[in-house]
Amino acid sequence: MKIVVATLGLLALTGCGSSAPQYVDQNLIIDKNVPAMSRNEVINGIADCEGNGTRAVMVYAKRRINGYTADVVVDVTCAPKYRF
Known about the structure:
Elements: H1 2-16, H2 39-51, E1 55-65, E2 68-79
Antiparallel strand pairs: 1-2
């Protein structure tokens, strides 16, 4: 009886990982129409969030600069602070 239960348990665990993962091709889309924020705008946005007692969350976009992709800040939003 113990052998049957152990065999069924082993078969149940191996059945979940029997199929190979399916990967989807992903392309990097660079949006040139979204304007990047300046350094002063980002600093002011963070200061506004901290002044209201919330935390600042930056939204990034990818830009191609001199042949390399770089993250640039396009928006600063305020979110509630974590409570521990």
